[in-house]
Amino acid sequence: MLFMVHMRVSPPVDEKGLQAFETAKEAERSYAMDLQERGVWRQLWRIAGLYENFSLFEVDSVEELHDLLENLPLRRWIDLSIHPLVRHPSRIDPL
Amino acid sequence: MLFMVHMRVSPPVDEKGLQAFETAKEAERSYAMDLQERGVWRQLWRIAGLYENFSLFEVDSVEELHDLLENLPLRRWIDLSIHPLVRHPSRIDPL
Amino acid sequence: MLFMVHMRVSPPVDEKGLQAFETAKEAERSYAMDLQERGVWRQLWRIAGLYENFSLFEVDSVEELHDLLENLPLRRWIDLSIHPLVRHPSRIDPL
Amino acid sequence: MLFMVHMRVSPPVDEKGLQAFETAKEAERSYAMDLQERGVWRQLWRIAGLYENFSLFEVDSVEELHDLLENLPLRRWIDLSIHPLVRHPSRIDPL
Amino acid sequence: MLFMVHMRVSPPVDEKGLQAFETAKEAERSYAMDLQERGVWRQLWRIAGLYENFSLFEVDSVEELHDLLENLPLRRWIDLSIHPLVRHPSRIDPL
Amino acid sequence: MLFMVHMRVSPPVDEKGLQAFETAKEAERSYAMDLQERGVWRQLWRIAGLYENFSLFEVDSVEELHDLLENLPLRRWIDLSIHPLVRHPSRIDPL
Amino acid sequence: MLFMVHMRVSPPVDEKGLQAFETAKEAERSYAMDLQERGVWRQLWRIAGLYENFSLFEVDSVEELHDLLENLPLRRWIDLSIHPLVRHPSRIDPL
Amino acid sequence: MLFMVHMRVSPPVDEKGLQAFETAKEAERSYAMDLQERGVWRQLWRIAGLYENFSLFEVDSVEELHDLLENLPLRRWIDLSIHPLVRHPSRIDPL
Amino acid sequence: MLFMVHMRVSPPVDEKGLQAFETAKEAERSYAMDLQERGVWRQLWRIAGLYENFSLFEVDSVEELHDLLENLPLRRWIDLSIHPLVRHPSRIDPL
Amino acid sequence: MLFMVHMRVSPPVDEKGLQAFETAKEAERSYAMDLQERGVWRQLWRIAGLYENFSLFEVDSVEELHDLLENLPLRRWIDLSIHPLVRHPSRIDPL
């Protein structure tokens, strides 16, 4: 199952919050790289000039997607929208 | 250059408009398949249950993207948003 | 897999459009009852006073959900939002 | 009387607020389970990947619904919308 | 049970539609007056300068409210929001 | 002159702010009851499950309404919309 | 009593509708000039580049404002917002 | 040149912020009165019940308007919208 | 005086409306080129993939801007927002 | 490649935040002037009365635009929208 997820990160503005955020950002990086290596986080694109990304996930169940997103180290600073995908009738490749 | 484009199609509701729309839809299909074969329309996903898609384009210039979108046979029934992409710092693959 | 779908129906205002709509409404009724009998359209609630409903679908795949929604006889007059569901941690029953 | 309630939880971002929130979350859990056992909170679904849920309540009066929602331990971090329900004309089961 | 309903009427702009609207408006008037006499449509206020009203309904059930609103002769030109009411803790009168 | 006022209260989330809010809430209660007794705050309904109310005011001037709202003890936590009312042409009672 | 009214005019796009609109526009002009001469429509400003205006009305009652706006010849193409005014505490002139 | 400016003031909710705000409010008052006396801030109306105003400015240049607004003592708590004005074709007075 | 204007064009969807639109588009082109040659429409950029543009106008008065925009041949299909400009304090060139 | 960027700055309201902001503002000024001298930040206009600007960037790649915006000293207080540009068909000059 494929899901496109649009993430918008809102870093805190105050110094103290920024520290907690920076620590979580390091963890997020490892988390994202590990999931990419496992083929779950299939694609990851940064939107130019913004703290936003498009992420393509391939999971075996909605539960897997849920757990994966809930455990994002930056989760509390991220606003998410989730789009389940199907094969487009004009697509030439398999999904 | 990579661009993620989100398209939302609004088919006309009246019978007459629907005919023009159906004709254009056929043309759109060939158009999309041709651009996929040429590697320009790199990815195309339908959002489940909706008349919307995410499209990933790889073009040599903004002008090429512009022409490509302006000539979509369904263009007048499509509402678009365009997101220029860069490599995400946590991405493990090249863009 | 469970999905909550919120549907908002916008009947046409003009007489001619209303006829096409009424015909489709009959077909929609059979379609909805059939899917309920098959256990796919598990729940269906009308929002009081409005032409809106909440629908709970249980499907085997996202593709099945997509086909089901695309074939709603009233589809062109319906505005949809789709929410994939997981078991809530405070839920006492299985999903 | 049946009401569909959509709840969106916004946990605080700062550490101190998070502590108060976590304590309330424990209380919320007991509260939700108790109301489910009493058949008032008839259904509870988590929306995948988000801190949101759909809740189906069966109450004897609007006042009962009001009291129940006002006393949610997490109430001050929850944004609510309430939808009174009636039987859908295409529903095959009783409400 | 008390419900505050906010109604916004959007009359058609074209001449033909206006005729159907005017006919329905006559029916709406009788309908509203009859329900007021029966004590169901307890209050009705026009918002100054706008084609909008606040309506206070007292009904025995959500179903009664639903039927009443669904049968408004002007229903297809009306946009509705419905607010179930309870006694305010600072209110000096019974509801 | 009659005005329908829709009030939405946003209590502070932090403990310290909550104390100031609770003190003001007590004052608000006396204020509201006094104005009801004087016939100025003619009606007051709580919207079920929400920290919102509809309030019907009868005042001699816009200035009186302004002063009354500006002096609400909870004013800084309240978001207001104000709707001047006239007699609805289908109303059977005097305003 | 003073009211600031913001009007946004949406002329029809089709030729036939434009004719009815143009006729009403002539009537609107006389209507506006007459009310200005009577001192009711105290001020009238066009927003540059847009089909919008700010209008300051001085009326003896909300009912008078309501009638005046309801009878605008262009009323069905106008979207209105109404703001009752009071003297600003920093104003040096009487209202 | 005439500009209508709509200002919405958002006073801080916390005690400390309120002190800075109150000090600035005093300065704002002198500032507004001075500009009125000089004929630049030609009109100033408070919107009833809200912390908002409509302000009519007559300036010699856009730069003058900019400086004037940038130096409002309450500027950091004010949200502004600016509308350049021209003479309305139905206006009987000169602008 | 400099104004940045953002224009969004909404071509009609039906065939008949499209003819009127295409005729006006030709006139728009001459109109725009003439104003560019006269130095009034100083800059004109198309937003890629969309029927929108940013236009920089240099005019002697707000009235001139108003007339210029009101006479755009495509005016009835264009939605406009207007932003008066001043020199940015960090700008190195004169405005 | 040309991009129009609309920036909206939201300075912090509290004193402590304001200090960090003022320091960054100084750095922003040098940053902006340097990029203007290098011809990358081709144009910069302040929107009158608001803490907003339109910025025209000419870059060799989307990556360059991304880096440039990410390194704005005021970045965490700025809300951005980015519009890739192409030559308008009615433009008389080269882009």
**How much helical structure, as a percent, in the residues of chain A?**
25-40%
Structural class of chain A: alpha+beta
Give, in spatial order, the strands making up the sheet with the most strands of chain A.
2-3-1-4
Largest interface: A-B, 28 and 28 residues
Query: In what range is the share of β-strand residues of chain A?
Result: 25-35%
What does this structure look like?
- The structure is a homodecamer of 95-residue chains.
- Chain A is α+β, with helices and mostly antiparallel strands and 95 residues long.
- Helices cover 34% and strands 34% of the residues of chain A.
- Chain A has two helices and four strands; from the N terminus they run βαββαβ.
- Chain A has helices spanning 15-37, 62-70; strands at residues 2-9, 41-47, 52-58, 78-87.
- Chain A has a four-stranded antiparallel beta sheet with strand order 2-3-1-4.
- Chain A is elongated and about 50 Å long.
- The model of chain A has no long low-confidence stretch (mean pLDDT 96).
Which keywords apply here?
homodecamer; 95 residues; alpha+beta; four-stranded antiparallel β-sheet; 2 helices; elongated
Q: What's the layout of helices and strands?
A:
The structure is a homodecamer of 95-residue chains.
Chain A: E1 2-9, H1 15-37, E2 41-47, E3 52-58, H2 62-70, E4 78-87
Antiparallel strand pairs in A: 1-3, 1-4, 2-3
